[in-house]
Amino acid sequence: MAANWQSRTILPGYTTIPSSITSLSFDPYSELLWSGNSHGQVCSLYGLDGERYTSYMAHRNSPVKELCLDDRGIVTLGLNGVKGTKRSAIGKWMVEEPRSSLEAMSMSPGSSEVVAGGNQLDLLVLNTNSGSLVRKIEVPEPIRFLKPGPRSSVVCGDVSGNVQIRDTRVSKAAMQHIQPHKDGLLGIESTVGVVQLGTILFVEFTLLTCHDRFGRVVPEPLVKVYDARMMRPLPPVSFPSGPSFVKIHPRVSTSVFISDLQGQFHVTDLSTSTGTYHMLDISSYVTSMAVSTTGNHLAFGDADGSIHIWTDLEPGQPENFNAFEGIQLDWPSEVQTPPRIDWNDRTPLNSIGLPYYDTPLLSSMPLHMPLPDSSPMFNPPTPIPISVMKGLRTDIFPAHAQNPPENKGKRNLTPSRKAGRSGRNRIGGRQSDEPKFISEQIRDNLKNGGVNNRPRLESRVENLELDISDVANMPKHYRKVEIKYSKFGIEDFDFGFYNKTPYSGLETHIANSYTNALLQILHHIKPIRAVATSQTTLPDLKDNCLLTESGFLFRMLENGKGVNCQSANFSRALSSFPQAKALGILDADISGNHNAPYGNMIQSFNRFLLEQMSVESWTFQPSPQICNNGNMSPISQLLGIESLSVSMCTDGCGSRSVRKGVTHVIEFMYPRKTLSNEVPLPVDFGSILCASIIRDTLTKHVCPVTKQFVPLHSRRIVSTFDSQFPAVLSINAGVHSKENLDIWLNPARRPGESPYSPKPEYFLPFEFGIKRTSDNVQVVTDQDKYDGDMAIYSLKAVIAQIYPDHDSNHLVSIVKISDDELDDNSKSPWYIFNDFLVRNVSPVEALSFSEWKIPSVIYYERKNVDKCVNFTALNQKIDPTILCHDLSISWNRDPKRIKHQVLSEEELPKPGSLVAIDAEFVSMDREEIEFRSDGSRSVIKPSKLSLARVSVLRGEGDLDQKPFIDDYIHTSEPVVDYLTEFSGIILIHNAFTYLTLHSDGDLEPSTSRHTLVPLKAAYRKLRLLVDMGCIFIGHGLSQDFRIINLFVPRNQIIDTVALYQKKDSHRKLSLRFLSWFLLKQDIQLDTHDSIEDARAALLLYKMYKAFEKDGRLEDVLDDIYSEGRRLNWRPPANATTTTNNQISTTPTPTPYEVKIPPQQQSQAAATGSFATIPTIFPSVSQVVSSGIPSQNSFPIVQSTAPIFNNERQAHRDPWH
After folding, report:
1. How many domains does the chain have?
2. In terms of pTM, does the model score above 0.70?
3. Residue 920 counted as an annotated binding residue
4. Among residues 10, 333, 708, 989, which one has the fewest Cβ atoms lying within 10 Å of its Cβ?
C-alpha cells in the first residue's frame, strides 16, 4: 500500500472521571465513532470533528470490553453482563451474569445474534433484539477472544492458546482447531474474503513466554497468518516491537494494520511484504484500535482517554466513515435562547413574564382545599428513624436497610402524623394550643391597644380534665412539647406559656434531653440534692463528674423559681462516658428520636447514674455520716440496700458462695405465668417488691467444684437493719410485655384478702411499710398493719413513658413537692414535669396508668426522712478564696498575655458588688435550618456553642475596670468552628501568623499561651459570684448565661441592651454602635475581645446612670435612634482611627450640647468657668462621683459654645 497516512485529529474522551479507552468501533451504519472506557461509560462521536452525540453508563464497576453494532443499535460487553441499547442511548435489554467474568463478544454472521464468552465453560448466544438467551455452546476452555468467522461461525481463542472455528447454530464440537502457540494468545483478528490464492483468511498473533526474561510474558515479534480453509500457516509478518493490536483492511484483505502499545503502527501488504511505519503523538500507551468500513480512517484509544484519528485521504476528498449515507440520526431540537435581561436591584419582577398556559398552575391551588395528613403538601416529610439509619447498607446500590420490628405496622398503610408535625392543611400555620412568639405578642399588643389574648389560650390548657382511658382524649399537658425558633432565636420563645408555677422546667433541643424526667426527680428529693450541691463546693477539677454537674443543675433549678433551665453541661459530661455509650443510654438526636425505647433507656440510665454518683461521692474525705451507716459513700447511704448474694449448687456437691453488695436500684421481677393446674402467684405490689429485693432465681451455671454445667440457686439476703433502710428507694418498673402492663392496669387483691372484697383501685400504693425478717423482707401496704419496727415509705415521684400514638414516645415525671417548698396556691402537692411544661395535677395522676401511659421509674421516700438524715457534715458554700488563686493548665503560658489580676482577700465581692462580664464561644455543631416553599424558615437544630473564654472586670474600687478573671476554657470535644472573627479564639499559634492546621491552639494545654482552665473551674468561679450577690453588667447577658448554662437572678443582671432600648421600639442596639456613638471608641474591628467588650459595657452603664441622674436619658435615646436610622445601625468603618498615617475623612461627632440650669449659669458666670463645663455631663463633680475615669475610657469633650435657650440640643444629627 502506497497510501500516505497522516494524523487528522485528536478527540477528548468526554468523561467526567479520567479513564482509558478500552474499546473502539466505527459504526457501519452511520457516521459515528463509538468508544467505551474503563469505568463502563459508552460515548458516541459524530464525524471527524468529534461532536458528542450520546453518552451513557453501560456497565457499573466494569470496563467496556467489546462493542458490536447492527442496524438496530449497539451491544456492549462488561465483565458481568451484556447490554443492548439504541443509538439514542435508550436501553433495550440487559443480561447479567454476576457469577461469570465475560471477556469477549462477536456478532454471529448472517443472523441477529451475538455470541459472548469468558471464564465460564460455555458460550452465550443472545438475540440482539430482545436480549433473550437463544442457546449455550459448551467449550473445553475459557474463552479470551471472539471474532466473526465464515457463514454462521465464530473464531474463538481460549486461555490455552487454541484457536477454534465454531458454528453458533449448533452446540457441537469445533469445526476446525489449531494451536499457534502453547503459551497463549494476546489477540485475534479475522476477515472473510477471497485473496490471491482463493483462500479464506484470518489473522492472529500471540504473546509468548520467554524464559530467558525471568518468566515475563512478552509479545512474540511476529503476526502469524493462517489459511482458514486448509488450517495451515502462511508466511508470518515481522513486527520487532511486539504487536498488541491487529486490524484487517475491510476492502483489501491483504492489507493489515499492526500496532504496539507505545504508539507505533505498521501498514503492511501481505502479498508483497511491504509497508510503512508511523508513530502516534502519544504521552501514555495505546489501549484500543479500530478501522472504518471504508478503510480510510484509523482510530486509536490511549490510557489518558483521548482518541487519535488518522486518515489516508488527501485534502478535499470526502471524509466520511462509510461509503453510503447510512441511518439518519435523531438530533435534539434547537432550543431558542430566551432574551437576555439586564438584572439589577431595580428590575421589576413582572418584566420576566410567564410562559403561556391553558391549564391552572399547581401554585394556584386553593389553601382551603382539604388534604389528608398523609399528603406531602404543607406537611414536612417524616424523618427516617435512627434505628433504621444504623443498619443502612451503602455497599450495594441502591442503599437499603432492614425495617426493625418495632417500626413494622400494617402493610400498605400510611401511619398517622404525629401531633405538632401536621400542617393541618395550612401554610405557616400554628396549632391552636401553641403560644405565639414574644415578638408577635408585643406586636399584637401594640395593634390591639395593649390587649393580650393569651389568657384565653391558656384557659383551654388549664381546664383540661384527665381521661385516662382514651388516648384520643389525652390531656394536652402529657403531649410532647417542642421549642420553636423565630428569627430572634430561642429568646423569642414563650416558655412562660407552659409554666406558671414557681418550679423550673428543663429545656429540650439538647442531647440526652430524655434524662430531664429523672433529673427533676433527683432535684426534688432533698437528701440527694444536698449531697450533689455539696459536691460542687469541693475543689475537684475532674471534668466529667455527673454528681458535680447534677449539683450545679440543682442549684439552677432551685434559684430559677419557675424560669426554664437546661442540662447542657450535664449532658456533655454524660456523653463523655464510654460506659454510657455501651449501655445505649446516649441520645444524640436533639429533636428527639420518636422511636427510641425511652422507657428502657431511662431505667438503664437510672441504674448507671446512681452507681456513678455513688462512686463519685467518695470524693468526700472522710465520708460524712448522713444516715446511720457511715461506711458507705453518701449516695449509697441514701439509696443503697446492703445485701448478701448467696449462690448454692443444686447438684449435690453442696458448694456455696457468698458475695456482699449494695443495691441502689430495685428491678421489678414479675411472676411467671402459672399453668392452669397451679395456684396463681401473688401479683400485688407488696409481693412483687419482696420478690424483687430477694431475687430468688434458678439458673444454669458452671459449678466451681465439679466444673459441671448445673442448676445454680441464687438468693439475696438483706443485711440492712430496719433502722438502716435507705432514705430513698429507687425502683425500675420493668414493664416489658402486655402481661406486665396488665398487672398495673388491673390490680390484684393482696394475699389473704377475701375474694369478695373489692379490688384495689390502683396497683401503686401511696405508702407502704417494710421490715426485715430472718431470711426475707416483709412489705405491708395496709396502714392498719404497720408496726413500730417498719420503715415507712411514701410515694415521691413517678416517671411514665407516654405514647401519644404508636409511632412516638417521650417521658414525663410526676413529683410530690416537699411541704416546706410547696407553693401556697397549689391545689395539691403533685406536679407534672413534661420537660419545660410544668403544671399542678391531682394525686390520682401519679397512680393512674394506661396503654399510653406506662410506668418506668418509681421513687419512694421515707416519711421521717428529716430524722433519718443529717446534713450538718455537708458544706454548702464554695470557698470564696478560689477567686484569689491564679489557676492555669497551660504548659507554656506567656506572662505577657496575662491581662488579669486576681482579687485579694480584701477585694472579695459583697452583695451588690458591680462586676462586668463578657464571654466568647466556639461552635461544637452547626445549625440546621429548613426553608419552606412559602419563604418561611424553621430551625430544625440550633447551633451548639461552648464557652471558650470568659472575662470578669472589677466594676468599682481602686482597680476599677481591671479584670480579675480572664480564663480560656479547655474543651475535650471536637470544635466545628472556632468563630475566630467573633471570638478571637484561634486554632494554632505561630510566631509570625495564625494558621489553621489542626485542632490545637488557644484551647489546648500544649499550645495555648493564655490562662487556660477546665470548664468546671471557670463555672465554679461564676457560680460563686452569683451566690455572693454580685451584680453582673454586660451586653446581651441572657444569651451568654444561657450558653454558659448558668442561671442568674434578674435582679443581679444589668444588661446594656435593655438600658439603651426605647420602650416603643423593638430595635436592640449593638455594643459596637453604642461604644462608637457614646464612648467615641471603635471596638470589634478585626475580632472580639471579651475584656474590651466587658469594659465598654461597664462604661456604658455608668454613662446611663449619669444620663438618668441628669434627667436627659430620653433625649439621648432619641438622638441614638435617630443617628442609628441614618447609618442603618452600623458605625462608619474606622470612624475614629487613622489609616496609613492619614487622618480619617469621617467627620468628628459634634459634642452633645445642653442647656445649663440657671443656678449653674450664675455659678459659671461668677467664676468664668464655661470652658471647663463638660458637655456630656453637667459638672465635673458628677463625672468623678459616677466613677468614670477621666482618661483611657471615653473623651469628655469641653465646649465654649453659647448656651441655648431650648430644652433640647441645638441639632439632632451630631451623635455618631
Report:
1. 2
2. no
3. yes
4. 333
